[in-house]
Amino acid sequence: MYDIIVKNARIPQGDDTITTNILVKDEKIAGFLDNIEGVAAKEIIDAEGHLTLPGCIDSHTHFMYQGFPHRENFLTGTAAAASGGVTTIIDMPCCSVPSVRSAKQLQLKVDLIQPQALVDFALWGGVTGEDVREGWLDHVQEQADYGVVAFKAYMTPSVPTFPRVTDPEMYEAFKAVAKTGLPVGIHAENYSMCDYYVKEFQKQGRMDGPAWAEARMELAEKVAIELGISFAEDAGARLHIVHMSTGIGAKLVGEAKKRGLNVTSESCPHYLTLNYQESMTKYGAFAKIAPPLRTKKDNEEQWEGINNGSIDFIATDHAPYEIESEKAREGMNIWTAFPGIPGVETMVPIIVSEGYNKGRISLSKLVEILSTNAAIHYGLYPKKGAMHIGSDADFTIIDLDKEWVIEPKKQASMCGYSPLEGMKLKGKVAKTIVRGHLVFEDIEESVLAGLTDEELKTIVHNFPEGIEEKYADEFSKYPYLHSAEYENSYRINNPEVIDKHIREIKGIKAKPGFGQFIKRQSIQILPRKITF
Question: For this UniProt entry, which segments traverse the membrane (predicted)?
């Protein structure tokens, strides 16, 4: 007796596919059968002949909980992930109160987000300029021992609780992280360049959307990547360039790989499909991100980077903001609006539609950049990112022929905007399966619609019982774990808006709290595969 059979699943075999039936026992893949006649299971899930990938991974999300629950909470964020075919997310340490830079802060975050999670999640650790200055670099090994998959550092400011690193502080951070064997991911923009030219453009009176991208120019990312590579080479660190936006960045990473360095990179769907001239003219602050959107030439060079191996996988930098207080507040302009967009819900469909379905990438490359490579890089493989016997039974089932249009107001993510609005795609997630359980199906009905006021209060609006006592020292430093932005938000005084949104999310089949925290399984390094 098996727990579940996923029948009629068309699974990848290199660049080809075969149709099979996947057996699931104890939430893991137990086998594959061509014929299931006479085979018993408690539940049958029909993949209907659709392409069935090993569960897709978004390794770069900012779900903003705790501290910024007006932007996204872990329930809406993981609902968006499930709706987009993402079975595992890896959340960043910076956008929470307190930011995550110690084992205790990691445990606090897990205790707070676990009751909301709908898909599985791993966590990044953090290292900042403050950690270097205050002599707290011992927290790096402490976080590695806890099970984080990598460490994040910012060359430009993020939030007040996560200070950026200066050049020498970054070098010291690299040396500390190198001892753990884990990657260190940098937001690669040169702070002085960005700061100087933003102020220059403001002096010139530029208020148009494209001004943001032109002030934070390609050169700011180029020199930041070059510095990061130099420091990593000397420190012996594994360098990862997060949300890399430029074609020249891909070339620099490729050259570093050819020299034998452990340098990796990720891109995002918006850097592959949007350009700043069109999107920032049309959407203004709703297309404002950091690093900014680039040019059509960068789009094409990044697709080349994916195919030649200089870009290792796709992530999203999912970082939504509240429209009323942070994107379009009265008096706000392109310089003062907050930089960030959603992405976890559209990552898989965009790469399928604009990459695989349009012939830009092969099926094997699709699997690598959406699933396998991130799992290996972050030490989660083969538990995640694989379709092996014994791997977690995570599957992303895609209807390759379904045509649809991105409509932000109808998405699970709470923000309600996207510069991808109106994009026509071919290929849509039909079902998302996590550990053998159906978490999302492309239908109207959702278990979230039936959550009572009291359930939402307990799951979303209140801290779990005993948390304030268990973490009294953190609550004394950060009252209620509130950020200044949350205190000035629209949703803090209108929690019913959050409840209404959650109840209107479509297709969710699992209850909040189903998702599990996944610690790093081992230290793994992606092979350097470069096509010359």
Answer: none
434: which strand partners?
437
CB under 8 Å to 285, separation ≥6 — which residues? 209, 327, 328, 332, 333, 334, 337, 338
For residue 262, the 8-state DSSP code is -
Mean pLDDT of 176-187: 98
Exposure string over 188-214, b if 16+ CB within 10 A, otherwise e: bbbbebbeebbeebeeeebeebbbbbb
What burial class does residue 355 get, using C-beta atoms within 10 Å of its C-beta: 0-12 exposed, 13-18 middle, 19+ buried? buried
3-state secondary structure of 57: strand
List the structure tokens of 281: 């003219």
CA atoms lying within 13 Å on the CB side of residue 163 = 13
Helix pair angle (138-146, 103-113), 10° resolution: 40
Pairing of strands 2-13, 120-123: unpaired
Give the span between the Cα atoms of 392 and 250, in whole angstroms: 32
Q: Does residue 510 register a pLDDT over 90?
A: yes
The widest CA-to-CA distance across the chain, in whole angstroms, is 75
Three-class secondary structure of residue 432 per DSSP = strand
The 3-state DSSP class for residue 434 equals strand
pLDDT score recorded for residue 160: 87
Beta-ladder partners of 399: 428
Q: Which residue has the tokens 């208020």?
A: 207
At residue 179's C-alpha, the angle toward residues 64 and 170, to 5°, is 55
512 closest CA partner among 58, 112, 79: 79
Q: Which amino acid is at 77?
A: G
For range 107-113, the mean pLDDT: 98
pLDDT band at residue 531 under the 50/70/90 scheme: confident
Once rounded to an integer, what is the mean pLDDT over residues 154-175? Answer: 95
Sheet of strand 86-91: strand arrangement = 56-61, 86-91, 120-123
What's the angle, vertex CA 309, arms to CA 307 and CA 313, rounded to 5? 90
CA distance 120 to 415: 22
Per-residue pLDDT tens over the stretch 515-529: 999 999 999 999 998
Q: How far apart are CA 515 and CA 17, in angstroms?
A: 29
Count of all residues that appear for the chain in the document: 532
- 380-399 residue pLDDT tens: 999 999 999 999 999 999 99
Q: What is the β-pairing status of strands 424-434 and 395-405?
A: antiparallel
